[in-house]
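note to self: dont lose this again. the chain is below, predicted strucutre after it. 304 aa total, dont forget to put it in the shared folder this time
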Amino acid sequence: MLNILMGWKGRDIISIKDFSKTDLLHMLEVARQCEEHAEQVLQGRMLASCFFEPSTRTRLSFEAAMHRLGGRVIGFAEAGSTSQAKGEMLQDTIRIISSYADVIVIRHPQAGSAQIAADAADVPVINAGDGPNEHPTQTFVDLYTIQKLAGTLDGLNIGFIGDLKYGRTVHSLLRALRHFTSRMFCVSPKSLALPEELLHELGTDISQTTNLGEVLPELDILYATRIQKERFPTLEDYQAVRHSYCLDRAALTTAKPTLKVLHPLPRVDELHPELDQTAQAAYFLQAANGIPVRQALLSLVLGT
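---
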């Protein structure tokens, strides 16, 4: 049986800001237990998988996690198949779905939509990405992966490269890393730098540059992100920065031999496939870690 503390049952998972260092470490420990041996503790429970935006890893890993824990899944993978296409308010959609399921996982293009869903639902709501805002469950996966690779979350040099303005995975992970002593280095075009309000919120020393070479030799972890075409106001704005970075073998020649490269995926052209067979590539392990982490989250909020 999982070692689960009181206080998680019925809890919404909306923002990484809602979780203390103790919470984060406890969740990582439960995920470790799930990876070693996950019991079918959610038999008779139902997950509503509500994806109003495209997803592969997040949606399928939540559904796989629920099935492996003995539960069942209902839901949809595109907004067009729901009554949202008829003009139904999100609140009404979620209120109805919460009467069908024990937990709701939602991805939606609107920032703040997960909180709207949580306010309308009578069951726990898990944010699987609300527009450019946050992606807390990906952050749990990222923390778990870093801890497995490095053996710690403290004392590391962690770099972020790519779309740091719209990158919700970066926003959530930076917020979580405030609880630890690792140093953060951000690499992006000036137009895709971290939002000023986030920098102010973090209140910590974050190195910012447009040149990866300036910081690469110091890094233990390099977290790459896709330039997100769907977040840009115009195609011209996207094309102006699309090819800002491409990580390949040549780009990483000055890196530590022990550097690990992470990426929340999907990738487009910022991460060359030639890296896949190198010891530095850890993004497929990162994706696989979505199963035990999301098993842990579902078990925690359903109080098993």
